[in-house]
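Internal QA ticket QA-208
Title: Verify multi-chain structure generation after dependency bump
Assignee: T.L.

Test input:
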Amino acid sequence: MIERKSERTKSAIRAAARQVFALVGYERATIRDIAREANIDPAMVMRYFGSKDGLFADTANFDLNLPQDLGEAPDKAGERMAAHFIAVWEQEGSGFAVLLRSASSNPVAAARIAAVLSEQLLPAVVAMVGPQEAPQRAGLIASQMLGLALSRYVLSLGPVAAMSREQIIAGIGPTLQRYLYGPLAR
Amino acid sequence: MIERKSERTKSAIRAAARQVFALVGYERATIRDIAREANIDPAMVMRYFGSKDGLFADTANFDLNLPQDLGEAPDKAGERMAAHFIAVWEQEGSGFAVLLRSASSNPVAAARIAAVLSEQLLPAVVAMVGPQEAPQRAGLIASQMLGLALSRYVLSLGPVAAMSREQIIAGIGPTLQRYLYGPLAR
DNA sequence: CACGTTTATCAACACTCGTTGACAAATTCT
DNA sequence: AGAATTTGTCAACGAGTGTTGATAAACGTG
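Actual output:
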């Protein structure tokens, strides 16, 4: 057999876990729920992922994957960044929904979001504006993007969820642009 | 006795509940934890609040309390709004921390945040810019403010938590200003 | 003081959860 | 085919949870 049977089961569990975790969060998701969603026995989850924590750690990952050339067209950076964020989030199984849904109550998820900020967003901003002002600028950007994701995808707040991608980008792009290159308080 | 003894106990429970709920969220908070924090018996919680849900419903309330005169100085509205948000959140026992910490996993909390948007923020924005564009503008404002609160108070993301109130206001005020009165995509 | 009401204590129930281990079935290898 | 390994099933355990009811202590009132 070219592919172990267990790999099929593992990915079925993973897919079900992503779905359930993203929908109800780490605490409310039960192994029994996930197993039922994947049409397997709860014990299989333990066999292949060791524990509920292990499954979550495997499922809740996210790569921001920012383009490297944002700084080459500085006047377009904000808009491009906004568009990139939305594109990455809306691709299925990105793991970001899992992460954000559980971040408020699960320390592991919170730490991973913090890591995305410090290891992916911050370096990109450093490359654009230098190390001096980068933390503050990256922090402001993170606050806007996380707030958008929370409002639109997690809480589904009416007005935010109703906006089109284009409206979102038109609204938030200039904000990111200013957070990147606009004036800053000392 | 001028004040029933039960009122003392009830407010002790309330205070402990706010603290525990705000720290770990609805699901991870246990009645036993809250009771221990308040130095009372778990059964007292049931007597006075009926259920864990009842206690949460009693604890998790929030009034944005926006000033009525924001529209009178339109060029200052964004900055004043930002300053007001921060002031309201940082006053102890505001209940907002409880709400936001649990919003991602608790439907009641999510619904209450949605209600703050639709019943408090939206009407204020309608009064300033009219009903046509208000939903989109209020949605954008909510996304930025929720994201700030999430980053700074719930997740304590380093760069955001490190900023001073003045830096926050200087950074976010202009954003709200543009969300209120700036150009908008159709 | 004695009585009724309010407040507090305690132990237990019923349930759900993550997790485990024994065992069976299927699959692969010799 | 027979043995060994992998994969799956099932029932149960132990811990923790919200919740309840019986019972005691504290308190105000005649």
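Spot checks passed. Residues 1, 5, 30-32, 42-43, 45-46, 51-52 of chain A lie near DNA strand C (CB under 10 Å from a C1').
Status: verified.
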